[in-house]
Amino acid sequence: MNPAPSAVLSFQEVTFGYGASVVIDRLTLAVPRGQVLAIMGGSGVGKTTLLRLMAGLVTPQSGRVEAFGQALSVKDRQALYAARRRMGLLFQFGALFTDLSCFENVAFPLREHCTLPESMIRDLVLLKLESVGLRGAAALMPSQISGGMARRVALARAIALDPELILYDEPFAGLDPISLGVTARLIRRLNDALGASSVVVTHDVAETFLIADQVAVLAPTPTGARLVAMGTPAALQASDDPYLRQFLKGEEQGPVAFHYPAPDIAQAFDLNGTPSGH
Amino acid sequence: MADRLAMLGQWALNRLSALGSFVLLFFSLLSLMGQVLRRGRLIAAQTHFLGNHSLAIILVSGLFVGLVLGLQGYYTLRRYGSEEALGLLVALSLVRELGPVVTALLFAGRAGTALTAEIGLMKAGEQLSAMEAMAVDPLSRVLGPRLIGGALAMPILAILFSAVGVFGGWLIGVGMIGVDPGAFWSQMSEGVDFWDDVVNGIVKSVVFGLVVTQVALYMGYASKPTPEGVSRATTLTVVVGSLSVLGLDFILTALMFGGL
Known about the structure:
Structural class of chain A: alpha/beta
Largest sheet of chain B: none
Helix content of chain B: over 70%
Strand content of chain B: under 5%
Helix content of chain A: 25-40%
CATH architecture of the largest domain in chain A: 3-Layer(aba) Sandwich
Oligomer: heterodimer
Radius of gyration of chain A: 22 Å
Strand order of the largest sheet of chain A: 6-7-8-3-9-10
Number of strands of chain B: 0
């Protein structure tokens, strides 16, 4: 399958694993331009690994990752860095530089990649912070703000260079309901305002279905994660695939077992043994 | 038996591969020096930070080492009736050996551990990955300036250590015991050669600065991003850093002063 020409980023038959265990098994996927693509799946299915592959932080064992029409490879560092400059990656916990203030964190990519006068850096940083609602927190250190705020500062940093592709790693994890709604709408608004494309890795069904154009669902198999479905939120909700139904509705019964594989329960509690003499 | 042999082999292989990554990291940093040197402000900040970090402990230790050298030196020299050579003995011991070596050992314990913990925690907090994702090489932004900072701060600290140590020796010898001050200073200025003694001592401390800082950076960079991983890396910095300094000191001394 060839990815659509309008894809910003594409995976072709990508396999990746740590040592002998395969995390992602021959995955083919395309991120459509201008849209918000959500990648969903249970914990530990390899979603974060997928995002790291997209940013070129890890290299697939086989297959090809292409961003902006060019293959990502650690061997060609210059091309890799050029591609990364056109991407923004939001880490799950923000990964702010703890020795720099919020302002300096957002200014970091500008200072590293552009030679701008200080007054322009100041204006750009304050604009980015304004867009995530945290202009007032510019002078604070990362240790002085809450986890949800840290993630928003990190988002301002990720969009500092007006990226064409924004990657979000679990942006909703551990947020209170208000921050959750705010963050979800922010992702949609930034995508449309910047004319960018977004990839949101998450397992939060409700919020994701409100903002995503396309949803890809990964399911674990013994030989690594596989793509089980991709489509619009409405199409996925109408599907009768058993894994999809279990995942979207959060049911205990289904293809994914609640119990981690274990020996027989009767054996574990020694219920088959001869009764004691009482 | 075969199991033990396999374990020994595995251990040796692990050590070798760690040594390989250590050397590889050093050469990667060297190859990035062009980029690193353009970050003058970061280098200055790191030199200041690392130097300041260890300044108090270095000055206090230098003074005490000088005091002890003055006392012990006096008792030995008196047997041969050459107490006037006390200044020379104190200065040579400090400038050639104790200044560079003790400074490096203290630096490994004070600034080295701080560096390892800092890099290890940056790694654990995904800050290094975040930098990578922003197309900024952590080697040239974070590690490089620290390596140069360490190599610059160490000789300055060693010079201060020796200077304070000589003052300590003077305090004991001239101030308390009553050695002739004229003889104390003139023997010292005649007997200490600028190139052979002072410059060689400074060369030693630059080498120690590079090695200790590189060990600290490597341990942090290669640490497992967990609390146990970072704590283990910090301990290893002191152990490996100190042993490297003592081993290298023997080699450097043999090379520099071996002909004497």
